[in-house]
């Protein structure tokens, strides 16, 4: 009997490989975080696939093709997790650089970096098809680089590197966007990467040029203010942010210093305290971080070494511990998504 796509004790992981225009697929064991390639992987995508999202139903994968300016939709085989693309590809803006989906899987948000816009699509629950939401794309200041959605789906935040700032948008039930009063909100020089606290209290921004992380409190209307002590010093060239499942720990990938800075976060004030043993070595030039859906592991992805390295997140201390497992992707990685 064949394995189900997301068999008990496993997750599915999908990785975009831009130089070979492929999507690699893996089954990941919960107990060890060991990666096993799925037969037939990698699968052909568009030209220079980058951002990647797995729908919450684990039926479809969405990939932004940065040179084609399109979005590929892949159907996930329910037995083995393999992929088959559903054509035609969907038009996006120039350079779809980052994507995020709401928790219900009904809306997909895309930042188009060269077009300086945000596209929003409604998602057909029966076949995964995308339809542009009326009134979008919404245009923004040049060079938006990434985005994050609050868990409730009420607010969308977009980082602009040129301004060192974060734009906030309120999101209607249909997906239309309205700029949050007071937006944009200052972060620090070279604001580049973004994450939202799972408790919807804070926004975290990696400031690549300043070598800091900015922590901003979320007001009831979506406005942002720096917490006391922010921005906080981190390693050299911070490029990615990840938050633990409970929101009590924060991790920053520092590309130039080849390590990960670890913090515990005060749930009331947002103040960041460096964890004992921080920073931890993360191999060569870690480019971005991702936590698994169960909150047990952190994955550090390196483009230069073409590896995915797994770390255990201890729930009581947050001090990362290596699993000893590192997966070679055979190509530079631009994006990764893990199923629930």
Q: What does it look like?
A:
By secondary structure, the protein is mainly β. The protein has a single domain, classed as YVTN repeat-like/Quinoprotein amine dehydrogenase (Methylamine Dehydrogenase, Chain H). The chain is built from no helices and 33 strands. Strands 1, 2, 3, 4 and 33 form a five-stranded antiparallel sheet that branches. Strands 9, 10, 11, 12 and 13 form a five-stranded antiparallel sheet that branches. A hairpin with a 4-residue loop joins β6 and β7. It is globular, with a radius of gyration of 19 Å. It starts with 9 loop residues before the first strand and ends with a strand. The mean pLDDT is 94.
- pLDDT average, as an integer? 94
User: What would CATH call the class?
Assistant: Mainly Beta
Predict the CATH topology. Answer: Methylamine Dehydrogenase, Chain H
- Helix and strand content put the structural class at mainly beta
Question: How is this structure best summarized?
Answer:
The protein is mainly β. Helices cover 0% and strands 51% of the residues.
Please outline the helices and strands:
Layout: E1 10-17, E2 22-29, E3 35-37, E4 43-44, E5 49-54, E6 60-65, E7 70-76, E8 83-91, E9 96-101, E10 107-112, E11 117-123, E12 130-132, E13 138-139, E14 144-149, E15 155-160, E16 165-171, E17 177-179, E18 185-186, E19 191-196, E20 202-207, E21 212-218, E22 224-226, E23 232-233, E24 238-243, E25 249-254, E26 259-265, E27 272-274, E28 280-281, E29 286-291, E30 297-302, E31 307-312, E32 321-328, E33 335-338
